[in-house]
Amino acid sequence: MIRIDKSRSVRRRVSISVGDVLEAKAERGKVTFTPKAVVDRAIAEALEDIRKGRVCGPFETAEEMLASMKGRSKKQTTKVKSTAHSR
Length: 87
What we know:
Layout: H1 8-13, E1 21-27, E2 30-36, H2 38-51, H3 62-71
Antiparallel strand pairs: 1-2
């Protein structure tokens, strides 16, 4: 953990709060911190799930999707193979 500045006035001027996620970038002997939205983290986690195959579908209908959701245990499986649905 890095303590940047504990001054409220500085945090207010740059619109950050205690606990905000900041991206650090080093350039030309300076470190720049950029506030990152929590959404960025959620998107990164979702993309990681996709890379690791922790996805279901595609589904032909909404009913197929709902049946898949109801049939799944509470614990997410780590790898789901995508197969064509045959009827």
